Amino acid sequence: MDLIVSLIRNGACCVKDLRILPDSILHDPSYTAKLYLFPGPHLDQTTPLEIIISLAQLYACISLSLAGLKMISSKGVFKLIRLNRTAEFFQSAKRARREKRKKDEKKASSKSDATADTCDTTGTNADATNADTAEELIRESLTQEANAALRGTWEGMALFVTGVGFFWFSAHSIHVTDTNWIGGLRAFIHAFIMMQIALAYFLCCMFKDSARGIRRSEQALLKIGELSAIDDKKKKDKKGKDKKEEATVEARWLTLETYNLLLDDDWNPFWTNGDVSTIDKMAEGKMFEKETEILKSKVKSFTGSDVIMDSETTARLEERAKTLKWDGYRELGCFVFNCFAFYGYMMALIAYYFDDEEIQPGYIKNCKFGYSNIDADWTGNFVGDVMWTVEPIFIVSIPLVMKFMNRRKTETDKKIKSD
Questions:
Q1: Separation CA 300–CA 282 (nearest Å)
Q2: Rounded distance, CA 239 to CA 235, Å?
Q3: Angle CA(151)–CA(135)–CA(311) in degrees, nearest 5?
Q4: Is the distance from CB of 18 to CB of 27 less than 8 angstroms?
Q5: What is the pLDDT of residue 2?
Q6: Whose CA is closest to 133, among 260, 259, 222, 290?
Q7: Structure confidence at residue 276 (pLDDT)
Q8: For residue 172, how many C-alpha atoms fall within 13 Å in the half-sphere facing its CB?
Q9: What is the DSSP string of 262-287?
């Protein structure tokens, strides 16, 4: 819904900028007066097209403000609180396991040499290795989610600031800021500056997400070769070794990133969710124990398997690599569009604060590419509107392009097999 409203809002802004269909009712303030008579001398100049833009901007104000507050709470503050409690459970379980291991080692050392020689500890060593691996995965996950919660807090604040800023944009569209109401033009410019700061933060996030998606795609393809090499090594090591040596588990290859890639989707334990209910708070200890046992079971299935990279897993990882790559390209595209939008909209601020063109510094004139204030303001605003119109179309088209390319690949493979 947000993408549709964004497309309508910015598409209408482009129509207004270019004055498409100039003789239609879209640009006729008298038609607005038939529906509602705004007071003069400024508000009565509002056209039906500006009403559409204002309503779409008001929707963005409400939607983004609420989304920002929800993100601050569920993906930020509340999530950090839950992660803090989970970290306490993790440390308690870690200490208990260390104490149990020490006791077991003392018992083993107190046994006679004869008993020790006949005792098979292979299973115990394997279980200990799997437990260590699961413990490390949980630690990495908690650290990763803590960073994500901090980012969620900043993103929520940026979303909230953007949503509040759209209130002044909505008022500006119906010429309210031409009066002294709600702070006038000065308040609109201040809101505009805050939205630009928020957009600058989002640009950093888009660039990081783009790089991460492309990097993970490359890692997924590399893991196919690395894990296949481990499978080959296991086959070679089986020859000439007894069962005890075969049962020894080496799980150092199983990192959190590898574990996420081997799953159909990224691991999503309960502590990744910040929407905490009263029941969850009471049962978090049991939830942590259950999550740990499930994780140990999955780790055991991966490390104990004779073949990690079978044909099904290889195909799934290749498909996952494609999805991650396209996700990275989507974020890169959004980054490019928003870079142009950021720079374009910045021309309005330059025109406002450097209104006297005769005394403008050289670097300001260079920023405007030699345009006058009026031309730079119009051109920059139009570029921003076009970029924000194309962006939702681009986002929606990515899954369709992926689906088309996958279907084409399937048809090509069938044709090759038939030949």
A1: 29
A2: 7
A3: 90
A4: no
A5: 83
A6: 259
A7: 67
A8: 17
A9: HSSS----GGG-----HHHHHHHHHH
> Any idea which residue has 């690599």 for tokens?
321
**CA neighbor of 351 nearest in space, from 318, 315, 378:** 378
Q: Say if CB 337 and CB 394 are below 8 A apart.
A: yes
Q: Single out the residue of 10, 351, 20, 42 nearest to residue 169, CA to CA.
A: 10
CA distance 7 to 4: 5
pLDDT averaged over the chain? Answer: 84
How many residues are recorded in the chain?
Answer: 419
DSSP code, position 67: H
User: Token pair of 92, please?
Assistant: 């308690």
Contacts of 200 (CB under 8 A, 6+ apart): 342
Identify the sign of the CA torsion 240, 245, 248, 252. Answer: negative
Q: What residues does each domain of the chain span?
A: 2-418
- The answer to whether 51 and 9 are in contact (CB under 8 A) is no
Q: SS3 of 7, please?
A: helix
What is the arithmetic mean of pLDDT over 394-408?
Answer: 84
Is residue 49 within 8 Å of residue 20, measured between CB atoms? Answer: no
Give the Cα separation of 123 and 248 in Å (integer).
8
C-alpha to C-alpha distance for 261 and 227, rounded to whole angstroms:
12
Whether pLDDT at 45 is above 90 = no
Per-residue pLDDT at 165 exceeds 60: yes
pTM for the model stands at 0.83
Cβ atoms 94, 135 nearer than 8 A: yes
d(CA 309, CA 321): 15
Contact 364, 372 (CB under 8 A): no
